[in-house]
Protein backbone atom coordinates (compact mmCIF):
# COMPACT_ATOMS: atom_id res chain seq x y z
CA UNK A 1 0.00 0.00 0.00
CA UNK A 2 1.34 3.41 -0.90
CA UNK A 3 0.64 6.70 0.79
CA UNK A 4 -2.18 8.26 -1.25
CA UNK A 5 -0.61 11.69 -1.30
CA UNK A 6 2.88 10.48 -2.29
CA UNK A 7 2.34 10.12 -6.04
CA UNK A 8 0.85 13.55 -6.74
CA UNK A 9 3.33 15.14 -4.34
CA UNK A 10 6.27 13.42 -6.04
CA UNK A 11 5.22 14.57 -9.50
CA UNK A 12 4.49 18.11 -8.30
CA UNK A 13 7.91 18.29 -6.65
CA UNK A 14 9.54 17.09 -9.86
CA UNK A 15 7.71 19.71 -11.91
CA UNK A 16 8.65 22.45 -9.43
CA UNK A 17 12.31 21.37 -9.41
CA UNK A 18 12.48 21.33 -13.20
CA UNK A 19 10.89 24.79 -13.35
CA UNK A 20 13.27 26.25 -10.76
CA UNK A 21 16.31 24.61 -12.36
CA UNK A 22 15.62 25.72 -15.94
CA UNK A 23 13.91 29.06 -15.42
CA UNK A 24 15.92 32.30 -15.55
CA UNK A 25 17.98 32.96 -12.45
CA UNK A 26 15.78 35.91 -11.48
CA UNK A 27 12.75 33.64 -11.06
CA UNK A 28 14.52 31.35 -8.62
CA UNK A 29 13.00 31.51 -5.12
CA UNK A 30 15.14 33.25 -2.48
CA UNK A 31 15.96 31.27 0.64
CA UNK A 32 17.94 31.84 3.81
CA UNK A 33 20.16 28.76 3.51
CA UNK A 34 23.15 28.05 1.30
CA UNK A 35 22.40 27.07 -2.28
CA UNK A 36 23.83 23.56 -1.89
CA UNK A 37 21.59 22.96 1.13
CA UNK A 38 18.58 24.09 -0.92
CA UNK A 39 19.49 21.70 -3.71
CA UNK A 40 20.13 18.77 -1.41
CA UNK A 41 16.90 19.25 0.58
CA UNK A 42 14.76 19.68 -2.55
CA UNK A 43 16.10 16.48 -4.07
CA UNK A 44 15.97 14.65 -0.74
CA UNK A 45 12.24 15.43 -0.56
CA UNK A 46 11.85 14.36 -4.19
CA UNK A 47 13.60 11.03 -3.61
CA UNK A 48 11.61 10.45 -0.42
CA UNK A 49 8.29 11.17 -2.11
CA UNK A 50 9.05 8.90 -5.08
CA UNK A 51 10.25 6.10 -2.78
CA UNK A 52 6.97 6.25 -0.87
CA UNK A 53 4.93 6.57 -4.07
CA UNK A 54 6.49 3.61 -5.85
CA UNK A 55 7.76 1.19 -3.17
CA UNK A 56 7.80 -1.87 -5.44
CA UNK A 57 9.76 -0.11 -8.19
CA UNK A 58 12.39 1.51 -5.95
CA UNK A 59 15.36 0.32 -8.04
CA UNK A 60 13.97 1.80 -11.26
CA UNK A 61 12.93 4.98 -9.44
CA UNK A 62 16.43 5.30 -7.94
CA UNK A 63 18.11 4.91 -11.31
CA UNK A 64 15.79 7.37 -13.05
CA UNK A 65 15.97 10.03 -10.34
CA UNK A 66 19.74 9.94 -9.96
CA UNK A 67 20.29 10.05 -13.72
CA UNK A 68 17.52 12.64 -13.86
CA UNK A 69 19.38 14.89 -11.41
CA UNK A 70 22.23 15.12 -13.92
CA UNK A 71 19.83 15.48 -16.87
CA UNK A 72 17.90 18.31 -15.23
CA UNK A 73 21.16 20.11 -14.47
CA UNK A 74 22.19 19.63 -18.12
CA UNK A 75 18.97 21.37 -19.22
CA UNK A 76 20.48 24.60 -17.93
CA UNK A 77 22.57 24.74 -21.11
CA UNK A 78 19.40 25.93 -22.85
CA UNK A 79 18.85 28.85 -20.48
CA UNK A 80 21.07 31.86 -21.17
CA UNK A 81 21.13 33.01 -17.52
CA UNK A 82 21.99 29.61 -16.03
CA UNK A 83 25.20 27.58 -15.91
CA UNK A 84 25.20 23.82 -15.33
CA UNK A 85 27.91 22.44 -13.06
CA UNK A 86 28.92 18.91 -12.20
CA UNK A 87 29.16 19.89 -8.53
CA UNK A 88 25.51 21.01 -8.51
CA UNK A 89 24.37 17.79 -10.19
CA UNK A 90 26.36 15.74 -7.67
CA UNK A 91 24.74 17.53 -4.72
CA UNK A 92 21.34 16.89 -6.28
CA UNK A 93 22.11 13.20 -6.89
CA UNK A 94 23.35 12.80 -3.31
CA UNK A 95 20.20 14.42 -1.93
CA UNK A 96 18.11 12.13 -4.12
CA UNK A 97 19.97 9.06 -2.88
CA UNK A 98 19.48 10.05 0.76
CA UNK A 99 15.76 10.67 0.19
CA UNK A 100 15.38 7.34 -1.57
CA UNK A 101 17.20 5.59 1.26
CA UNK A 102 14.93 7.20 3.87
CA UNK A 103 11.85 6.21 1.86
CA UNK A 104 13.13 2.66 1.45
CA UNK A 105 13.69 2.37 5.22
CA UNK A 106 10.15 3.57 5.92
CA UNK A 107 8.72 1.18 3.32
CA UNK A 108 10.61 -1.74 4.90
CA UNK A 109 9.40 -0.71 8.34
CA UNK A 110 5.82 -0.52 7.09
CA UNK A 111 6.14 -4.02 5.60
CA UNK A 112 7.14 -5.45 8.96
CA UNK A 113 4.22 -3.72 10.71
CA UNK A 114 1.59 -4.69 8.13
CA UNK A 115 -0.51 -7.75 8.90
CA UNK A 116 0.51 -10.66 6.70
CA UNK A 117 -2.45 -12.35 4.98
CA UNK A 118 -0.51 -15.64 4.68
CA UNK A 119 -0.72 -17.78 7.83
CA UNK A 120 2.56 -18.07 9.71
CA UNK A 121 2.80 -21.84 9.10
CA UNK A 122 2.65 -21.36 5.30
CA UNK A 123 5.35 -18.68 5.05
Automatic annotation (TrEMBL):
* Superkingdom, natural source: Bacteria
Indicate yes or no for the key word Membrane: yes
Q: Which residues cross the membrane?
A: 40-55, 60-77
Keyword annotations for this protein, in alphabetical order, are: Membrane, Transmembrane, Transmembrane helix
> Which NCBIfam families does the record associate with it?
vanZ_1
Provide the protein name. Answer: VanZ family protein
Q: What is the phylogenetic placement of the source species in the record?
A: Bacteria, Pseudomonadati, Pseudomonadota, Alphaproteobacteria, Hyphomicrobiales
Amino acid sequence: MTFKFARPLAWLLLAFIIFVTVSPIGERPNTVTMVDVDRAVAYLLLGFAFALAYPKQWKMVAMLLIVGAFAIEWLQYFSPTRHPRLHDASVKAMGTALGLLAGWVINRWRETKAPNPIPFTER
